[in-house]
Specification:
single chain; three-stranded mixed beta sheet; alpha+beta
Length: about 190
Amino acid sequence: MALPAKEISYTFADALAWEGQEHIEIIEGYPYMMAPPLRVHQKIVSELHRLISNFLHGKPCEVYPAPFAVRPFEAAGDAPENVNTLLEPDITVVCDPEKLDKYGCRGAPDMVIEILSPSTRRQDMVVKYQLYQRAGVLEYWIVDPETKTAAVYHLEEGRFNAAEVYTEKAMVPVSLWDGFSIDLREVFTEE
């Protein structure tokens, strides 16, 4: 989809007015079109969502797969035309119901998982890493289908710590909840 030419930066208000089914993220006013994900990407998203959703059943936190609008820097009362960052993480976990609205999440989610794709690798590992850190996401996972690994970052004193990297047969603890780990053997199943 060709976006209309505009001399000012794009906002959440613009995204609400766009027609079509394309997935577009806005990062500090600049729109990024997202290519359709590969099947392995969607399989990993489905497995992670299933595992987390099953654990959270009956608990106050909620998990959402993409597409799910996250406006990490939006505060209560901000008008859509003043929100210049709109992301669609592959998996989003929100534990504060006050952050949820009819569009998605306003403010930093508690946990975000991004699955690397050839077209999003740099975006997820550099740009979104910095945005999620700045916003205050407590736990950020970068899952790589090619290497069958998960790099897990935890926010400490406003910065992500060094990644803990888990391989395809590891049990990965989720720091948000005691006693919950994700078995990567269930995530990285044969294609």
